[in-house]
Amino acid sequence: MSITGYGRRRVLGVAAAGLATASLGACGLFDDEPAPPAPPDPLQPLLDEAVALAAAYDRAILFQPGLAARLTPLADDHRTHVAELARLIGATPPSAGPSASAATGAPAETIATLRTAEQAAQKSAVAACQAAPAERAALVGSIAACRATHAEALR
Amino acid sequence: MSPQLGAALAAEEAAIYAYGVLGVHLGGRGDVTEARAAEQAHRGRRDYVVAKLAQLGASAAPSPAGYALPFAVTDRASALKLAIHVEDGVAQAWRPLLPATTGADRTTALAAMTEAAVRATRWRRLAAVSPVTLPFPGRPE
């Protein structure tokens, strides 16, 4: 009837369309695109490796208590690395218990396996030291050197 | 990186001197072979640092004729203790080069620090010192 009535309907329609658009937009923002997780710190693999090494020693000691005197200080070194790296990169150090384990063989075999693991871990720490920014190079270098001394201690 | 290289040079020179002193007090053939190899390694590192400093146009401080040893070396036990002390010191002298270098120079510094740490572990084992390792070789105590 009146220009005003037509006008009101039109205004409502536009407003409804606007709401629909806004809610679609909201869906896109909050449902379809979850915030991407922060990329892991470049030293995260070094931390994971230290956790795994400490657990490997714990496992070996559990199955061969006779090796405890020799292996415990080496496991402690890795735990010290875990604490230091976790503090540096602001991560919560994961705890890998010695329970998740397979049976181990003779003591000599256990030592040889640990030595191989230390040598591999030393290599990755050397690579991490190479790639590290100046402020991290000394710490990562010391971890690499420590792993080398472990391989020596297991000879 | 010249100041850090200067410190590494001083540590290598001191190590060469120390091995000359402690050698006569060592025991079995294992000890002596180990000491000879260690001294050769330190000479090699010293030559590298001297060449590097020359390449950088930095002058190296002349090495002193003798060094004050941290304690008297009178027998095998004190000789082994000095060997451990010297290798720990060399590792500590190379560590500050890691943040001061990149690429091949950092690789060399890390190798020098690591080899000193490994020798320190061998000496600790020969001296029956426990534990035979440090969590952060090269980090000042």
How would you sum up this structure, described in words?
Chain A: InterPro entries: TAT_signal. Chain A: Keywords: Signal. Chain A: Residues 1-26 form the signal peptide. The complex is a heterodimer of chains A (155) and B (141). By secondary structure, chain A is mainly α. Chain A has helices spanning 3-32, 44-63, 68-89, 107-131, 134-153. Chain A has two domains: 1-36; 44-153, Ferritin. Chain B has 141 residues and is mostly helical. Chain B has a single domain (2-60, 69-126), classed as Ferritin (Up-down Bundle), CATH 1.20.1260. The longest helix of chain B has 27 residues, at 29-55. Chain B is globular. Chain A binds chain B through residues 69, 73-74, 76-77, 80-81, 84, 126, 129-130, 134-135, 137-139, 141-146, 148-150, 152-153, and chain B through 91, 95-96, 98-100, 103, 106-107, 109-110, 113-114, 117-118, 120-122, 125, 130-139.
